[in-house]
Write a structure and sequence with these properties.
Helices cover 51% and strands 0% of the residues. The chain contains three helices and no strands.
Length: 75
């Protein structure tokens, strides 16, 4: 196994959504598309991809999801 100096691994409990920054990202997506009256699955897929793409270019949102877990962005 290679040792990578810049990588920090956090061992999380098996089920701990409050410690998982990904849950915050999904919360942002669900809030944005929650009132979508989709005609089919492809419409939902497009809406989710669009929202994820917008989040990708907003590092402040991603950092906020990480901060909400108690972990420190960039730390």
């Amino acid at each position: 196994m290679a040792i990578i100096a810049w990588l920090t691994v956090f061992q999380l409990p098996t089920y701990a959504p409050d410690l998982n920054p990904q849950e915050g990202v999904w919360s942002l997506v669900k809030r944005d598309i929650g009132s979508l009256a989709a005609a089919d699955l492809s419409q939902i897929t497009r809406a989710v991809k669009r929202r994820l793409k917008r989040i990708q270019y907003r590092p402040d949102l991603v950092d906020g999801c990480l901060t909400a877990t108690g972990l420190i962005p960039g730390g």
